Amino acid sequence: xxxxxxxxxxxxxxxxxxxxxxxxxxxxxxxxxxxxxxxxxxxxxxxxxxxxxxxxxxxxxxxxxxxxxxxxxxxxxxxxxxxxxxxxxxxxxxxxxxxxxxxxxxxxxxxxxxxxxxxxxxxxxxxxxxxxxxxxxxxxxxxxxxxxxxxxxxxxxxxxxxxxxxxxxxxxxxxxxxxxxxxxxxxxxxxxxxxxxxxxxxxxxxxxxxxxxxxxxxxxxxxxxxxxxxxxxxxxxxxxxxxxxxxxxxxxxxxxxxxxxxxxxxxxxxxxxxxxxxxxxxxxxxxxxxxxxxxxxxxxxxxxxxxxxxxxxxxxxxxxxxx
Length: 323
Known about the structure:
The protein is an all-alpha fold.
């Protein structure tokens, strides 16, 4: 994927995620949880269409059947082009799961009977249904990528790694603008509700909530930068994995990884110290120190990868001199 196109797509994703987080805050009945998107909204649209009249009801049934049968159609197309593999069965399972899950979301009264948890039964049921559907989707994608990786040569594997790195950036943007930004909006609401009548003195608290958001989002922003540096290194490796330019990019990437890890640790310490200094002005203090394990592991893996490339290039140079 061209870098400019990737930037544009990531920007559009960020805008969509911000809009989704704001909609979730103001339209809880339509956007209950992230994991139910977009199935909950599809079900709501089909439900409204069905209630619009006899023609609308018939059209909603056709749409319902078409949406649910879509994975089975992809399964049929795959079977016509190549030999089907074990993981392809998940496409058929996804169609069956969609038929059941969308039907229950269109008729939320049935969800309450299955998950009897008081007033929150429908929401809990939608979360379970959405989680099940997404687990099948991601399960199929992961298993398919694994098979393609094992069956591919080095050149194709490098392309798959590039696609995976680009996909990770979309994941990082989602974490920043849905998870972290959503937590920020929720914290704003909680602080405002807990200080009704004295909102005038909440400026400092809101400021530190924004700082907490920035500290929480920082690891994933740095991860996104790490991905771009890794893509540069990967592009150089495709030309000549033992070139001087490849070694320079590998060293640059390894140094960046070290700085990124240091920045993540120091930012959390600085925020906690600032909260301690200005504690008297704050109505809400979150003096926690959360280590983003997944982010740290990702950066360490990239660091190991960069160091390995640099060492291999030096070893190749030494062998050439010896010969």
